[in-house]
Design a protein that fits this description.
It is a single chain. The chain has about 160 residues and is mainly α. Helix content is about 70%, strand content about 5%. The chain has 6 helices and 2 strands. Strands 1-2 form a two-stranded antiparallel ribbon. Keywords: Membrane, Transmembrane, Transmembrane helix.
Amino acid sequence: MTLLTARRVTVRPDFLAAMMLVLGGGAGLISVLLPWMTRREIGSSMSGWTYVTLGLSSGAGGDTGQTVSAYGVLGIAVAGGACILLGLSTLLPITHQPLGAISLMLGLAVIGAVLWWSQENQRSAGGFGALFDQLGPGWFVAAAAGPLILIGAIRALSRSD
């Protein structure tokens, strides 16, 4: 009679995936507090949170694309918070593939939100060249959050132990 024995597989923490997901998530959260757009001619700037509140308050009467952009900026912050939690979860001795799959979707959503925001605001700025002259640090931090999240997600997906 042959006895079947279960082989115990120990899952190790993935520090690289955790670091990239926490950095990308933190960048997504912080980007909402930083200025996304600066108007040098009038000397003012608009933070991500101001953009969200203005976009959502104009909701029904405003441009649909601007409303979606406002939700996108808010979504970047929410995805950032989720990626911080997912990154910390990769330090636990659990399988990392589901965490990586969720992080991958969130990273792609962050990149999509940044691209949507850029597309919507280039019309009011007078083209992409003029838009890039007016971009503030919040946009650049949000643009960096997506690739950081993707690197962490791919790392979490690629771990087989």
